Amino acid sequence: xxxxFEGQRALITGAASGIGRSTALELARRGYTVGLVDIDGAxxxxxAEEVRSAGGEAHxxxxxxxxxxxxxxLARDVVGALGRVxxxxxxxxxxxxxxxxxxxxxxxxxxxxINLRAAVRLTRAxxxxxxxxxxxxxxxxxxxxxxxxxxxxxxxxxTKFALVxxxxxxxxxxxxxxxxxxVVCPGYVRTNLHRATxxxxxxxxxLLDAPPSWYGVSSERAAYKIVxxxxxxxxxxxxxxxxxxxxxxxxxxxxxFAIARYGAKRMGLLTPRAARSTPAA
Length: 281
Description:
Helices cover 49% and strands 17% of the residues. By secondary structure, the chain is α/β, with parallel strands linked by helices.
């Protein structure tokens, strides 16, 4: 398997922890030279050392992907260091847990810039090189929340639905250029995403601080599935126990809605009913 990808170059955003870290290590084990992007410089340095200790080649790029200027500079630095990008994995992500009326404009800018606009901007910056070579792959880490409206995570679901739609339309746009697109929609993966989450409702926080032992998959298992899907050039990868909710939504939407509503109520994630008052005479 390693010989198949020897000399291939991958760029992974959000690489310092969680799915990004595990996927970078999995790609390096399979022969990819990996470019690692994150705002966490110390995390990048640690990961790069792990890759090199295992005999792989790693390049680190510390960048704040919320900034268009930083992405423009990143694209230049990446091409300068790697020469080309054969695989771009747009993985970086953050979350806001709050009902609509408690999500500020600043919250919206933050999550849209990182979860959606960063992926669009970096893809636009690196796609011309892939088109010129007539080959390449672009992958996106979305979420089950991009297939099912996640209660209490309205802003997060909005960005992930948009990312799924972008990936699907992009695949149609570039498939005749020799470029494949994969979008990954996992359920809960045991990562540090909750540390990059702005909580204005502690229902999910309580769950993720101490999830049941059976719930979720490890980032290593997720990475293995993701890299296999990329290698197979699959357009969509869905995994995790939550996929049953996705199937139910497609087969019986009313039941899926009722179950989601019940779970959201149990965790106190829904906007409370407004107090009713007697209208003035």
